[in-house]
């Protein structure tokens, strides 16, 4: 299979599911969000806005629309953006995907509808097909989002094959967040030319030689440059050095509740406590957890260069 990928997918890349800052009243803090997006882009990352670690499913439809517009109006290139547009309700998924398309985004990352369990591949095909047909663009690209441990709705290889056959210019890749290496490696083997993005940088050492397109990772929020450097390593020795660096940070962070941990790390390195806020039902890290995590990162000589300077503009 051969697909025509937009520039954002033409070479291995890292995308961050950008964490979302909130005000004291738990509204979206757009200035902080835009400043952080600028920092991520400056560190070599693309922006997977409204991903799992963005607390996307705690954001309303209108909030996602408005925030995407704010980021683009701030001058950040939408061609670097891969917003999440999957939703339980088909009309919401259509509205979000159409908006991303009209805004000029590189594509959309689409969860399956995730409330009903045990749905058939036929039903899932109809969901994706209805969105694609409603948007009606030959230029827009869709990446599927496989995270069955959260959704309860797996994206099977049979479904992938059918979607590629029906929409070869549109359905061009997948984010595999299953954590199942056997599934990731099987997709890389079965669908050559399909942009497979593992969700953990810890898998890149095995995935890149098999043709992985890059990485869409929670911890790309805090180590985008290191992951980009791994993806762009010129030699096996250079790749091995970066593999070790990114894997140790990943292990430290994923041992904690991921979203509160990411936001506390950003708060610390931005010197901005407001970043630690999460929307219910999530809760912020307690001081004991947070202190232990920061000490562990300090022992790894971890840093987020220039973040405090960039973030200060938004405060």
Automatic annotation (TrEMBL):
InterPro entries documented for this protein: Aldolase_TIM, DapA-like
Pfam family for this entry, one: DHDPS
SMART domains, A to Z: DHDPS (SM01130)
Source domain of life: Bacteria
Keyword field contains Nucleotide-binding: no
SUPFAM superfamilies xrefs: Aldolase
Keywords in alphabetical order: Lyase
Family indicated by similarity: Belongs to the DapA family.
Protein name: Dihydrodipicolinate synthase family protein
Source species: Paraburkholderia ginsengiterrae
């Amino acid at each position: 299979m051969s697909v025509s990928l937009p520039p954002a997918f033409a070479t291995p890349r890292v995308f961050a599911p950008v964490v979302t800052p909130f005000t004291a009243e738990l509204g979206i803090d757009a200035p902080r969000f835009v400043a952080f997006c600028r920092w991520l882009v400056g560190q070599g990352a693309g922006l997977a806005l409204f991903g799992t670690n963005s607390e996307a499913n705690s954001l309303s439809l209108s909030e996602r629309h408005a925030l995407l517009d704010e980021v683009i109006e701030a001058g950040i290139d939408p061609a670097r953006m891969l917003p999440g547009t999957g939703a339980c309700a088909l009309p919401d998924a259509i509205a979000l995907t159409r908006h991303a398309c009209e805004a000029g985004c590189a594509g959309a990352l689409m969860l399956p509808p995730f409330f009903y369990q045990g749905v058939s591949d036929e039903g899932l095909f109809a969901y994706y097909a209805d969105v694609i047909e409603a948007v009606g663009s030959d230029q827009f690209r869709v990446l599927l989002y496989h995270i069955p441990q959260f959704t309860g709705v797996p994206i099977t290889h049979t479904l992938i094959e059918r979607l590629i056959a029906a929409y070869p210019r549109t359905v061009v890749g997948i984010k595999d967040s299953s954590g199942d290496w056997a599934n990731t490696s099987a997709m890389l083997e079965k669908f050559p030319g399909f942009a497979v993005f593992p969700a953990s940088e810890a898998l890149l050492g095995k995935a890149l030689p098999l043709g992985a397109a890059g990485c869409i990772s929670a911890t790309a929020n805090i180590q985008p440059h290191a992951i980009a450097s791994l993806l762009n390593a010129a030699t096996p020795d250079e790749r091995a050095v970066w593999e070790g660096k990114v894997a140790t940070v990943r292990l430290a962070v994923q041992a904690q509740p991921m979203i509160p941990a990411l936001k506390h790390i950003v708060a610390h390195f931005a010197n901005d406590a407001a970043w630690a806020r999460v929307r219910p039902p999530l809760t912020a890290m307690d001081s004991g957890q947070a202190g232990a995590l920061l000490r562990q990162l300090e022992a790894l000589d971890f840093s987020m260069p220039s973040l405090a300077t960039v973030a200060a503009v938004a405060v």
